Every structure is written in C-alpha cells, then in structure tokens.
Amino acid sequence: MDGATNAGVARIVGPPSMSKLASDALRTMILSGELRPGDRVVENRLTVQLGVSRPPLREALKELEYEGLVVQHPRRGAVVTPITQHDVYEIVTMREELETMAVRLGVPVRSPELLRPVADALRALERAAEGGDEAAVTAHGFAFHLAVVGLGGHRRLADAYRALALQMQLCMGLNRRARKDREDLAGNAARHRELLRVIEAGDQDATLAALAAHGHRTFLAEIVDGLGGATPRSREWLRELRENG
Amino acid sequence: MDGATNAGVARIVGPPSMSKLASDALRTMILSGELRPGDRVVENRLTVQLGVSRPPLREALKELEYEGLVVQHPRRGAVVTPITQHDVYEIVTMREELETMAVRLGVPVRSPELLRPVADALRALERAAEGGDEAAVTAHGFAFHLAVVGLGGHRRLADAYRALALQMQLCMGLNRRARKDREDLAGNAARHRELLRVIEAGDQDATLAALAAHGHRTFLAEIVDGLGGATPRSREWLRELRENG
DNA sequence: TCACGCTCTATTGTAGACAGTAGTCAGATG
DNA sequence: CATCTGACTACTGTCTACAATAGAGCGTGA
Questions:
Q1: Angle, to 10 degrees, between the axis of helix B155-174 and the axis of helix A85-106?
Q2: Which of B158, B69, B129, B54 lies closest to A90, judged by CA?
Q3: Model confidence pLDDT, tens digit, residues A172-219
Q4: How far apart are the first and last CA of chain A?
Q5: What is the DSSP letter of B81?
Q6: Are A44 and A58 in contact (CB under 8 A)?
Q7: Other beta carbons within 10 Å of B212
Q8: B145-166 pLDDT, tens per residue?
Q9: Which of A15, B80, B95, B117 falls between 20 and 30 A from A49, CA-CA?
Q10: How many CA atoms lie within 13 A of A9 on its CB side?
C-alpha cells in the first residue's frame, strides 16, 4: 500500500528518511499506549527523545494527523486524538462500509496469487495466537483485514481503510487492561481462517456475513462505556448495536 | 470540515499561517489547470513564486499529498498526481459509495436548519449559472455535494469525500477545453435544485436515485478516452457504465 | 476579596544554510 | 560506434537559529 508501488520501481533499500523513522516511532508509541489519547505532544520533548530535529518531526506529526492519530490545534500544539463515543461510531461504521465495498469489488478473487498476502497474514496471526502474544494477534488481525481490503484492487479505498484501522487500534488501546477476550485468541484465529476459507471459495455473501458476525461488537461495548462525547447519532447507533448483537 | 470544528472553538480570525496560505494557493494552481497532472513541483521555484519559505511549503505539499493532488517520490521531488483511467475509476466509485452512505445516514434530515449550508450552496450555484461563470458553477456544485454529505453528521466520511471531490476537480480540469456542457449550466442548476427538493422532502430513495442519475457519467466518457493506465477493473467498469448509461 | 491587566515563559511558526543523493551529460575505452 | 565510468548539477532532506504567539502566574487597583 506504500512506497513499494512507486512508479513501478521496487525499492529494496530505501533511504531511512528521518521523517519516516520519526512517524513510525510515534505511531508505535501511540498505538502501544505509551502516549494516550488526550496527551499533549510537545515537539521539543520528542526531538530529544527520538533524536531527530524539528522539521522531520513536524512532517511526522502531519502524517499522523492525516491518519487520525493526532490532532493539531493551530498555535497550541498537538494532542493524541481524544476519542469520543461519536468517534468510535464514526470509525466503526465507516470501516464496515469500506470493508463491505472492498469485498463486493474483490471477493470472487480474480487470480489465486492475490490471496497470498491474506494467507501470509493469517499464518502470522495463528503463530501469534499459539504463542499467546496478544498484541501481535491484534496487529496481525488488522493486517489480515487490510489484506482482505486489498483484494478490492482499489488503492484509495485501502488507504482510507488503513487510517481507520489505525484509529481502531488506538481505541482498542483504551481498554487494554479491562479487556478480557484473552481467552479468545484461538477463537480469533479460527474466525479469521474461516474468513479466508469463504473468500477462497469465492462466496461473496458468505464473506460479508462472516465479516458482519466477526465484528468487534463485543469489545466495543466495553470501550464505549468509558467515553464521553456522545451525540444523538452515536447513542442511537449504540442502542441498535446492543439490540441486534 | 476543517478548523472550524476544532475543539468547539470557532476561530473567526485565524492566523494566516503561511502553510495554509501556501496550500490554498497551490490547490488553486492545480485545480485551475495552471499546474497540470504530471508536472513537476519544484520546491525552490515555488518558494520564490509564492513568497514563502521552504518549511511551510513542504507542509503544504504534504497536505496536498494527502488530498491526493500531488504525489511525492522519496528523493525525487513531487509531481501533480498523474491521472490514469484506473484513478478515475477509483475516484468515481468511491465518491459514489461515500455519498450514498452519507445520504443513508443523513437524509431524513434531523433538523431543518442543517439544510442551510446546502441551500446556501445552491443559491451560489444558481447565481453563478445565471452569470454564465462556468468555473464557479463547477466549484459551487462540489460545495453543494459536500454540504449534502455533511448532512450525514460523519466527519471522517466528509473528510474523505472532500479529498475525492478535489481529485474529481483535478480530473475535470483535464478536459476543460474539450468540454462542451456549457449549454447545460441552467440544467445543472435545475438538477441540484431538484436534489435539494427531494432531500427536504425527506425521501431517501428519491435522493439516492437523483444522485445516481445526476452523476457525471456523461462527462466521464470524454475524460477517460484521453487517459492511459487502464486496468482490467477500470475497463470493466467503463464498459458497464457505457451500457447502463 | 475579586477582577483586571501585565509580564514572562514555554512552545510553535518561519527562515536561511548546509549536506547528501539522484539524475544527467560528457568523455574515454572496448 | 556502443557502452561504461566519471564528474557535475539540481534538487531534496535535515539542521540550527530567530521571531511571534498563546497561556499562566503575579501584582495592582477598586
């Protein structure tokens, strides 16, 4: 989804590019929970912490802003995106919409080798599940879904999906402690394997159904309770979610 | 869709922020056709042209990159996004998808005053149509659709839609000369008025139908013919489009 | 005691300069 | 004559330094 497709030139050894290093480091800090939503992100502090100068750091911040992980207030600095209930509503609904669109576009998959990224992600996920590495399972789970979306052959769609997936991970970091789906690691892997199976079978409807069932609805309820920023819309959505799920 | 919603603080008089000035100027240059797809965007040249220094210009470029108007190759500079046939396919399909989602969310409109931005855009469009200002009609047309999408009350959706609308305008700049829908200015305004009417009536299905009929299918055919970069997917899409339209 | 204004500090926005890399063209060699 | 190698040029990536702004804290006056 990134530089590998640049003008058809496969860059094996890319220039490390301080900006990219900084943005990757920052992203990791945020998704790992080292920086929590609402925390201020002060430029000078991070420059000494990451060992880069301010210009590349500012570029990194701008990149994360477009990924939705930080927000920048004009003259008051940057903050890790504070997540409201309405934000969760937006992230989840749009993510579902895009994933659905991708499946409609891509699921009777055109050539079998396109499935390799999906299969690779699944293997990594299963390995992580066996090893009991919860964080890795989450990460590979997102990679799996991203790969599925990639089947649509729609770059803009995949990019938008990726940003939403990142924000979703940000949300999940909120209740890492409170989360108790640890027992579900094996089940998680199994659900993903089933998903790959129906995709391989070329059954679009079954894929959509599996995605709908496999959504993060269970964990959503836990997250949302601890959040403010509800809107009529988000409340309505949450109510429907609880009734139907 | 922008700073006006920042933390609930309405910034009346914003700091001009060289970056924003630069990005606005650049956007205008690109959408007006002064810079055409494929043109290199050299930083030093623009700094003297716009009168800003390189850091803010680089921020502006990054902003435009996330809007999809320029692409940056790692150590080789930026170019105005070259539009391929597949790009048009992506832009149009995703735009339709997002607009549909927004209408599903927003169209039995919750409170009448939400329609004001839509009505304002329509008035501006009609004025421009009467004046025969073709460019203004196009711009206000996009503003109208953006306002319609805003009815969904879904910020992330609206942001994504805005980026796609910009890219759409970039495409339209491609065949400004060849375009001969000038006679359609009044009809254009009429279609938008009809759209507002069904929205006001709260008829979701009629709104969706009006949007589907009102799409830019006619002009798309003209654009696409001059483009390379076709893919199996884009070819298929185009064929269906021509059969059904 | 409270409200208002001022100063001061922390932090961001911007500028200019330097270094390193990619692309290009000329020259030499087979 | 073709091809490879070398230096050159232009551009980007990065850094340090300066200017300007917003927020906090304190002092003064009513």
A1: 50
A2: B158
A3: 888 765 555 555 788 889 999 999 999 999 999 999 999 988 766 667
A4: 33
A5: P
A6: no
A7: 14
A8: 999 999 999 999 999 999 999 9
A9: A15
A10: 9
User: Sign of torsion, CA A1 B98 A168 A23?
Assistant: positive
d(CA A148, CA A132): 24
Q: Is B215 helix (H, G, I), strand (E, B) or coil?
A: coil
Nearest nt (C1') from A73 Cα: C12
Retrieve residue B4's tokens. 């006006």
Backbone angles phi, psi at A72, to 5 degrees: -115, 125
CB contact under 8 A, A73 and B14: no
In this structure, how many other beta carbons lie within 10 angstroms of the beta carbon of residue B188? 20
Q: Which amino acid is at A176?
A: R
Amino acid at B119: A
The residues close to strand C, meaning Cβ under 7 A, are A 15, 41-45, 54-55, 58, 72, 74-78; B 16-19, 52-56, 59, 75-76
Q: Which of A6, A59, A74 is the closest to B14 by Cβ? A: A74
Secondary structure percentages of chain A, helix, strand, coil, to 5: 70, 5, 25
- Dist CA B52 CA B24 (whole Å): 13
| Residue B104 tokens, joined | 């599903």
